[in-house]
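task queued by scheduler; priority normal; single chain, no ligands, no partner chains; default sampling; output format set to structure tokens
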Amino acid sequence: MYQSLYRKYRPRSFGEVLGQNHIVRTLKNQIKSGRIGHAYLFCGTRGTGKTSVAKIFAKAVNCPNSVDGEPCNKCQICESANNNSLMDIIEIDAASNNSVDDVRELRDNIIYAPSSCKYKVYIIDEVHMLSGSAFNALLKTLEEPPQHAIFILATTEPNKIPATILSRCQRFDFKRISSKVISQNIKKIAEDSQINIDSRAIALIAKHGNGSMRDAISILEQCASYNDVLTYDDVCDILGTVNDDTLFALVNSLNDRDGKETIKQVDKLMLYGIDVNNLVKALLSFLRDVIVYKTCGAESEEILETEINDVILKASLFDMAFLSNALEKLMDLQGKIRYAQSPRIMLEITLLKLINPEISPDIDSILDRLKKVRKCD
């Protein structure tokens, strides 16, 4: 039976976890020293490895052959955990089991000793979805759990968790994974899965992962069915985004203050079926990359070598004042466009204000007009 790539390549040991070295090191040291806490809180955006690390930790504390804090992945306990058939590792989805009765059932069962392991580990995913009464029912158990019980609470919204729960947990914050790390892993998965894909396409997938390894792998899986050899343009078509050459043509017409060419470029993109929201998002990403490149050169963790192409190099010749002004106006537009009845008109007016500062009352446009007056003098 076919298995999704993000499940197939889910890490099974701490050494396979990417981008979370600060957490992996701490957990491994706790296992080696025997200083294992009774309650942990894993926070972070989706796809950063919270549930994967929770499963590895649950496996490692129970593995009889663990070395240097790592599970062996060969014993019966590890194999059962990898197959999701180990009774002493209990995963609970708080989104669908969020009532006080569900927590009471957990509290009634936790007193029983593990069936085959040293610890009984409860992994509660999306714990912020528990009701207020459910949190109150969980509080006493978290405060004084049995010696054989470990709780791992995972959430994307720690601000919704009561302070009384937070104070009883060791908190670990999972970082967004850098585009370089995601890109390296996507390349490895593509080679292992015999997916032919060029380097610029990998860079685009990594960027659209937006710090989430799972999202990036899911995009790769979606794209893999499109063509025998995936190109950068193929991935742009699938994601409904705009390639760098087209973006440069649009931004260049803005920089040249060519209103006719700007409207022509927007019209061309609309005919291609590009969504206005996606176009604004692509423009923001492009302008941000150009500004970062002008500031940091090729050293930024978020700009991949494959992205530093002729387009970025040419765009880096643009004036920083123009780039930052365009970025600010498009960010403001992005916040308004979702509620607009005519998003295309809002986009065109915003672009024309960049070309003709005299029709825009904001301070950046006034400064731009003053700069023009000084040049004339």
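post-processing summary
- The chain has a mean pLDDT of 86.
- The chain has three domains: 5-173, 179-239, 244-376.
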